[in-house]
Automatic annotation (TrEMBL):
Taxonomic path: Eukaryota, Metazoa, Chordata, Craniata, Vertebrata
Keyword Transmembrane helix: yes
Family, similarity comment: Belongs to the G-protein coupled receptor 1 family.
Name under which the protein is recorded: Olfactory receptor
Job description of the protein: Putative odorant or sperm cell receptor.
Signal peptide range in chain numbering: none
Length: 318
């Protein structure tokens, strides 16, 4: 990257983050998000462990849930540790390569999660509307292919969006008004006309956000029609409870992502960007295991069994 004003190379960015906040505010933010990050890592790690080791949780729903938690771990680890370091360190500089890599991981993991949430909605549709054919339609092989598809499109999409973001030279400023390298903000720092890059990201967001959302809406519309056609109110209540957790996760994730990548930049500001970035980088990954585990009796029992085995192993080692 070349600075067109003086010919010097621009090889780094400065993440402004919460630098303008008071020291007491930064300390409070550090304590709060350290706790949230630790909680999110612990809960998602527990879900990964029990869904991959407990034979009672062998259904496709728990297979997808384990991979969702793994994506959440990758997502928050890409951004939050760096933010915590910058809250206590004076040096907020990140290299061009580090910024590019971070953005690629955010794009890749984020898109993979969007697609996976759509596949999870389809899984619920098959389980509720076609229960007799569920095992055949959602076989282990099919589930592996669906998860692989989510990862493949996420990682390929990350390459495309990284290229679009960093295609031009940067010569205006190297201060990023956020706590991580977010594409629309980085594009605004480039020398050329950012309209092409922003339009490409907007079009990509339509595909990777709205297309999975259409599948989710169709799946739950058919689920709703199936539920309303049932005579048993207890059956309706159980099905609503099963689907409510997934819908809650979808609403959290999609609304924050759509604001960040589908709104005109004129409606954005540093405070709004940081708020919505925090929502989908830490709050949503932390809420996912809470929502799924607290609304699911099998998950609760599996967690108790896993924690019980851990306590027993520790007592025997002592």
């Amino acid at each position: 990257m070349v600075d067109l004003r003086n010919g010097s190379r621009v090889a780094e960015f400065i993440l402004v983050g919460f630098e303008q906040s008071s020291s007491s505010t930064r300390a409070l933010i550090f304590a709060l998000f350290s706790a949230l990050y630790s909680l999110a890592m612990a809960m998602n790690g527990l879900i990964i462990f029990i869904t991959w080791t407990d034979p009672r949780l062998s259904s496709p729903m728990y297979f997808f849930l384990g991979h969702l938690s793994f994506l959440d771990v990758c997502f928050i680890t890409t951004t939050i540790p760096q933010m915590l370091i910058h809250l206590v360190a004076r040096n907020h500089i990140v290299s061009f390569a580090s910024c590019l890599t971070q953005m690629y991981l955010v794009f890749g993991v984020g898109v993979a999660e969007c697609i996976l949430l759509a596949f999870m909605a389809y899984d619920r549709y098959v389980a509720i509307c076609h229960p007799l054919s569920y095992a055949q339609i959602m076989s282990r092989q099919v589930c592996v292919k669906l998860v692989s598809t989510a990862w493949f499109f996420g990682l390929i999409n990350g390459i495309l969006l990284d290229y679009v973001t960093f295609r031009g030279p940067f010569c205006r400023d190297n201060h990023i008004e956020n706590f991580f390298c977010e594409a629309p903000i980085v594009i605004a720092l480039s020398c050329g006309d950012p309209q092409f890059s922003l339009t490409t990201i907007f079009a990509d967001a339509i595909v990777v956000l709205l297309s999975p959302m259409v599948l989710i809406v169709i799946s739950y519309a058919r689920i709703l029609a199936s539920i309303l056609g049932r005579a048993s109110s207890s059956g309706r209540g159980k099905t609503f409870s099963t689907c409510a957790s997934h819908l809650t996760v979808v609403i959290f994730f999609y609304t924050s992502a759509m604001f960040s990548y589908m709104n005109p930049r004129s409606t954005h500001g540093p405070d709004k960007d940081k708020s919505f970035s925090l929502l989908y980088t830490i709050i949503t990954p932390m809420c996912n295991p809470i929502i799924y585990s607290f609304r699911n009796k099998e998950m609760k029992r599996a967690m108790v069994r896993a924690l019980g085995r851990t306590s027993l192993a520790q007592s025997e080692s002592v």
